[in-house]
Amino acid sequence: MSRRRTRRGKAGGFFRRTLLLLLVAALAMGGWYWQRYRSFADAPLAGVEAGTSLVVARGDSLASVLRKLQDAGIAPGDRLQWQLLARELGAAGKLQVGEYALQPEASPRSLLLAMRDGKVVRRMFTIVEGWNIRDLRKALAKVESLQQDTAALDDAALMKALGHPGQHPEGRFLPETYAWVRGDSDLDLLGRAHAAMARELDAAWAARAADVPLESKEQALVLASIVEKETGIAEERPAIAGVFARRLEIGMRLQTDPTVIYGMGAAYTGNIRRSDLTTDTPYNTYTRDGLPPTPIAMPGAAALRAATRPADGDALYFVAVGDGSGRHLFSASLGAHNAAVRAYVQRYRAQQRSQPK
Questions:
Q1: Is the dihedral of CA 233, 239, 241, 247 positive or negative?
Q2: SS3 at position 315
Q3: Cα–Cα dist 320/23, whole Å
Q4: Which pLDDT score is estimated for 27?
Q5: Cβ–Cβ < 8 Å for 316, 331
Q6: How far, in Å, CA of 141 to CA of 186, rounded?
Q7: pLDDT means per 10 residues in the chain (357 residues)?
Q8: What CATH code would you report for 52-117?
Q9: What does the pLDDT read at residue 322?
Q10: How high is the pLDDT of residue 26?
């Protein structure tokens, strides 16, 4: 009996020691793997170059995202570690569609958090004050990665697609900087810009001066577009608007070159001649009374406010100072205006003579 118990005791001790050794080994292995996992989560991804991006499409799984990283020359590492990290971060099955920037310091943790939270790349597109619809459409067509839905549409079809059939497109898109993401289209941007202009125009018209000589907010938009083209100096806009408002009040023609240029269309080559001023078009404010039939450009918010709240005064004329500042000299009489024009011509000729030949 004693020998049998001794053998059993020895066997039990061996089993316990073996089990303990296996447990210690498992703990050591687990600790090693945990340290490796933590190091993986925050280590920069290998092979990422500046300017690289990752596009997550609708229906993409974590596995397909990792394949896209590999295809881009980036070594993502162990798939199991990605799956564990995704569960830890609450990103499993919740990757949002979009484009994500990859910087050289990007780690699996930062990338999964970005995809979980939808921190996609946001690009910017600026509509410049004074652009016309041709300028705007040409600029949109050059934007890379922006889906082009309007390339085959003429202006009438474009406005119909935006939900405004029959509306002339000129002046209807607010000059501003708009953020967009991959998957957006030019029609999306135009829709937002159109809505922004409608809001700004409504606000400017609601705050208009009581005596402004305009019958509708559409007329305000037309006048604002002229003001926008006449000066790039912000503080001059109310004064410019004041000149045109007084001309409208007394029935004097606006006689503004930008409307003539707009009416010339593709025939304008950079110079306006006397014959252009006398050639009648719907936009020639030298040959026709009142405002032209549509805006001639995209006015900014400041020009809208100037058109609806023009500056008081008695000036009926203005001409460029000609000193390179872009500013204008305002006159109340034709005689004073003609003197200002002569001074401008003299400065211009003197500058031309001083240019090296």
A1: negative
A2: coil
A3: 90
A4: 55
A5: yes
A6: 8
A7: 55 62 56 62 86 88 92 84 91 92 90 93 96 97 94 97 97 97 94 98 98 97 98 94 98 97 92 93 97 98 98 95 88 95 87 75
A8: 3.30.1490
A9: 82
A10: 57
Where do runs of H (alpha helix) occur along 43-101?
A: 62-71, 79-89
Whether 104 contacts 48, CB under 8 Å: yes
The domain limits of the chain are 52-117, 123-200, 217-354
Question: Distance between CA atoms of 161 and 217, rounded to whole angstroms?
Answer: 23
Task: State whether the Cα torsion 196-202-206-209 is positive or negative.
Answer: positive
Separation of alpha carbons 195 and 198, rounded Å: 5
- Please report the pLDDT score of residue 247 as a whole number: 98
| Residue 127 to residues 164, 177, 325, 347, Cα–Cα distance (Å) | 20, 6, 24, 34
Spell out the residues 6+ positions from residue 50 whose beta carbon is closer than 8 angstroms to its own.
103, 104
Q: What is the pLDDT of residue 348?
A: 81
One-letter identity of residue 17: R
Whose structure tokens read 């118990």? 5
Report how far residue 220's alpha carbon sits from residue 241's, in angstroms, rounded to the nearest whole number: 10
Interhelix angle 257-264/217-230, nearest 10 degrees: 100
Other CB atoms within 10 A of residue 133 CB? 20
Strand, coil or helix: 191: helix
